[in-house]
Amino acid sequence: MEALRGAFLHSSVVFLRMALIDTGREAQLARIISDAERQGLGILLYTPGPVGVPQLGPIHLLLERPGEGWEIGLDLGDADLALLVAYTLKQNRNQELVLIARLDGDTERAQALAYLKSVAELARIPEAKLLTETPNDEPPELAPSITVFVLRLPANVSDLRERATRAASPCLFALDSGRESALA
Q1: Phi and psi at residue 89, in whole multiples of 5°?
Q2: Domain for residue 82, yes or no?
């Protein structure tokens, strides 16, 4: 990563792959994620889904409650790269994009939907479906073709693997480099 930073044209994103089963490489993967973050690089961590997942389902982007609450600001915090990748997948695959606010309970549902609506409008994402989800909700009727998560540090690889297993679809975890802006 350090050698690539010195190149004239260099990548600002590191692409990684994580298996759904424990391969004994968690410490190595966590170290690479930490090193990339320290170098100011974004990260896209891909996890394949279970066999037989439909490829024609919608693209799900799960957004958790921002630190300042369900209020839209000048940027999306650490969700810019995740939103940009999800939108690019939507465009390239001509599939529906579902923005999902992950809630702890039902009390913030209206605020979260207003937040998602603002995100879709400000990021100029046409025809995005907006949903909220609590831990007790049933899985969606149509399995997603891919689920995009915001990767937050410190990254616990076993927790990421558990989230990918619960999603029951291929997953992409995205960590901002700090230079992305989905609202620009």
Answers
A1: -60, -40
A2: yes
Structure tokens at 135: 């831990």
CATH, residue 75: 3.40.50.620
Three-class secondary structure assignment of 77-114: CCCHHHHHHHHHHHHHHCCCEEEEEECCCCCCHHHHHH
Give the whole-angstrom CA distance, residue 9 versus residue 26: 30
**In a 3-state reduction of DSSP, which class is residue 166?**
helix
Number of folded domains in the chain? 1
Residue 92 CB contacts under 8 Å (≥ 6 apart), including other chains? none
Condensed to tens digits (0 to 9), the pLDDT of residues 83-136 reads 999 999 999 888 899 999 888 777 888 888 988 998 898 889 888 999 888 767
CB atoms within 10 A of CB 55: 11
> If we measure between CA atoms, which residue out of 27, 26, 1 comes closest to residue 14?
1
Q: What is the pLDDT of residue 65?
A: 83
